[in-house]
Amino acid sequence: MTKIILSGCFGHMGKVITDCVAKREDCEIVAGVDIGNGSADFPVYKNFSEIDTDADVIIDFSHPSVLNGLLAFAVSKKMPAVIATTGLSDEQVAAIHETAKEIPLFFSANMSIGVSLISELAAKAARVLEGSFDIEIVEMHHNQKIDAPSGTALMLANSISDALTEKPHYEFDRHSKRQKRDKHEIGIHAVRGGTIVGEHEIIFAGLDEIIKISHSARSKELFAVGAVNAAIYLNGKKPGFYSMKQLIDEK
């Protein structure tokens, strides 16, 4: 039985994860962390420094401002953590990689196995089509999402960039320019509206043909399932940086 501390337990994803864990027999939530108010069947603390509950792993779906306290607590307890919060700065991502030298850390901008698969497909396509196809990424989310572009869109762009021999630059603001498209750019576009859970499409546009790779999330439960599976996977692992790639490779 994997014992979980849930960071961001009163947020929307926190509630989805709580419902997901309640349906399983291989894990349980023993504590939560949230600055908001709400009710839960486990003790909830305002910050990590207050926690006095034993656990095996942390799942974090909260806010970037929580990260420093989370990492300090995890290191002090030698406790693995699954970090699924988006909108982290480059410095915070670097801190995750550095902390992973001391404890097991699982980090992904998207906890969907499907998104990880299309990331690998996009990288493969980029290698095959390099030099003859323009690449654009379009992502769509609900009107309450505060970061743009999405962490997943950037993850897809990074996966493609890593596969290319000549590194591209990312274009977020093409409307401000009066010039032709640079062949070494990846355009990244964000759409916000309604209750869209998450849509991502990679477009490879060549001479007289277009190739599209896309993923559509129909509910937030798939992200919850991915995060819980990652937590169970991480329990007992050696210090290091883990992602959906390792989880998929072991299936």
**Helix run count:** 7
Helix content: 25-40%
- Label the structural class: alpha/beta
Taking all Cα atoms into account, the compactness measure Rg is 19 Å
Arithmetic mean pLDDT: 93
Q: The biggest beta sheet, please?
A: 7 strands, parallel
Shape: elongated
Strand content: 25-35%
Distance between the termini: 20 Å
Encode the helix/strand succession as letters. EHEEEHEHEHEHEEEEHEH
The order of strands across the largest sheet is: 3-2-1-4-5-6-12
Number of DSSP E strands:
12
Unreliable stretches: none
What would a concise description of this structure say?
The chain has 251 residues and is α/β, with parallel strands linked by helices. The protein has helices at 12-22, 67-77, 90-99, 113-129, 151-163, 221-234, 244-249; strands spanning 2-7, 27-33, 44-45, 57-60, 81-83, 104-107, 134-141, 169-171, 185-192, 198-206, 209-217, 240-242.
List the helices and strands and how they pair.
Elements: E1 2-7, H1 12-22, E2 27-33, E3 44-45, E4 57-60, H2 67-77, E5 81-83, H3 90-99, E6 104-107, H4 113-129, E7 134-141, H5 151-163, E8 169-171, E9 185-192, E10 198-206, E11 209-217, H6 221-234, E12 240-242, H7 244-249
Parallel strand pairs: 1-2, 1-4, 2-3, 4-5, 5-6, 6-12, 7-9, 8-9
Antiparallel strand pairs: 7-10, 10-11
Helix pairs in contact: 1-6, 4-5
